[in-house]
Amino acid sequence: MRQIETKIISPLLGKQIPLPTYATEGAAGMDLRACLEEPITLQAGETRLISSGIAINIHDKDLAAVLLPRSGLGTKYGIVLANLVGLCDSDYQGEIQIAVWNRSQQAFTIQPGERLCQLVFVPVVQVQLQIVDNFSQSSQRGEGGFGHTGRH
């Protein structure tokens, strides 16, 4: 298992609020929790930045971290990430802030330590764009865009 340098930003983390962990052996993402001293209420349609309590140093340009919403919060309560997917580049070393959006019509109270999103590490391939007039090979799809294969 790879190791990622992690700095604890909040004194709550590791004491009142559990450190980020994988919930199961097969989990792809580790849960990031609301690093709060007291509950906060997110009104319908409101967006807030919530502290995760950690900063990471990936230190490898071939790796990035993404924040993904928790399916249960989104499906049951309308609580998703404001930018839908967050991205931590390999050279970002600041605190991970969780941009939470209440897309529902009801207020939602976030409890201290509540699992808000998942942190997933993914490989990155940087490329150089090669400008051409025509592609060297055409695909079966070609320029077929959104919905070109139909609904079923």
UniProtKB/TrEMBL annotation:
Residues 16-150 form the dUTPase-like domain. It comes from the Bacteria. Its EC number is 3.6.1.23. Its cofactor is Mg(2+). InterPro entries: dUTPase, dUTPase-like, dUTPase-like_sf, dUTPase_trimeric. GO terms for biological process: dUMP biosynthetic process; dUTP catabolic process. Substrate binds at residues 70-72, 83, 89. GO terms for molecular function: dUTP diphosphatase activity; magnesium ion binding. It catalyses: dUTP + H2O = dUMP + diphosphate + H(+). Pathway: Pyrimidine metabolism; dUMP biosynthesis; dUMP from dCTP (dUTP route): step 2/2. Keywords: Hydrolase, Magnesium, Metal-binding, Nucleotide metabolism. SUPFAM superfamilies: dUTPase-like. NCBIfam families: dut, PRK00601.1. This enzyme is involved in nucleotide metabolism: it produces dUMP, the immediate precursor of thymidine nucleotides and it decreases the intracellular concentration of dUTP so that uracil cannot be incorporated into DNA. Belongs to the dUTPase family. This is Deoxyuridine 5'-triphosphate nucleotidohydrolase. The lineage of its organism: Bacteria, Pseudomonadati, Pseudomonadota, Gammaproteobacteria, Thiotrichales.
